[in-house]
Amino acid sequence: MSSQELCDGTLDAEARAALGRLSGADRFTELSGKNDAGESNAFSVSRAVGHLHDEPGLRSTCRVYPTDDDSDFPLVEIEFLAARQHPAPLTAAHGGMVPFRVGAYAAAGKYGADLYFACTTTGSGVSAGGDTPYVKAEMLSPSLGARDPRDRMVILTSVARAVARAAGCAEEAGLPRTVAQG
């Protein structure tokens, strides 16, 4: 599939360009089969929102593989979960992580990125945990040499905006279209 179809179609033009720079590829696949909940492994924004309070095996995760790679390791793996708090924002690069001015906390490095944004959610039924004020978006991505950490944050922010819209908290989250390093 093309990058435009990945992660339930959530990658905007800037994120698709970032994925191209990160991977050097233009065709991709997502994980097939079923997750622990018996749902498709293909990422779905609505399932991501519905499973924010669930255990990892139940969450909807976007796993992207380049089509010309036989590796079992995804190029990009993105997941969302409910969070009660966020780390203190970085004021400068630290421990290989570069801060960004996105959400309540955002940092990216050569192995991935984390983004916390304001989004009040309630876990009920199968989902447990009560009300939480944040959503954590996390991306794992292997080091591919000296790639720009901004590319990882651009991809993660694009998918996070779609999740925030579907969760009804886009205004609360305030995730920008343009990602600025902070």
Task: Explain what this protein looks like in three dimensions.
The protein has 182 residues and is an alpha+beta fold. The protein has five helices and seven strands. Strands 1-2-3-7-6-5-4 form a seven-stranded antiparallel sheet. A hairpin with a 2-residue loop joins strand 5 (105-109) and strand 6. Helix 2 (13-23) runs antiparallel to helix 4 (149-167). It is globular. The N and C termini lie far apart (33 Å). The mean pLDDT is 88.
Q: Top keywords for this entry?
A:
182 residues, single chain, 7 strands, alpha+beta
Please specify the SSE layout and strand pairing:
Elements: H1 6-9, H2 13-23, E1 28-30, H3 45-50, E2 62-66, E3 76-83, E4 98-99, E5 105-109, E6 112-123, E7 130-140, H4 149-167, H5 170-173
Antiparallel strand pairs: 1-2, 2-3, 3-7, 4-5, 5-6, 6-7
Helix pairs in contact: 2-4
Number of helices: 5
H/E element sequence: HHEHEEEEEEHH
CA gyration radius, whole angstroms: 15 Å
State the separation between the terminal residues, measured CA to CA: 33 Å
Q: Largest sheet at a glance?
A: 7 strands, antiparallel
Short description:
Helix content is 24%, strand content 25%. The N and C termini lie far apart (33 Å). The chain contains five helices and seven strands.
